[in-house]
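Write out this protein's structure.
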Amino acid sequence: MGLIDNINKLFDHRIRLGMMSILIVNDQVDFTRLKELLDVTDGNLASHTKTLEKANYIRIEKSFIGKKPNTKYSITKEGKLAFQKHIEALENLIRQQT
């Protein structure tokens, strides 16, 4: 088994890595807050959320508050497990290099 076998390619991008880091410690985060925390555009955030949703790593919940649309994101059990494995793989890689 290679040193980087358990590193998940879906988390290679800094925005997806940031999203997962935020969602693993929060039950839910809405679109606006996630966009502010990551300092990204609407389109950029939307494309990365689609990638993570397609992998079943995050759940997207759309609703309305009054007449205003509201989108909330949360991490799935599968996403939490995949992200934890990714972090462990990075930690193992660092430990092996010291």
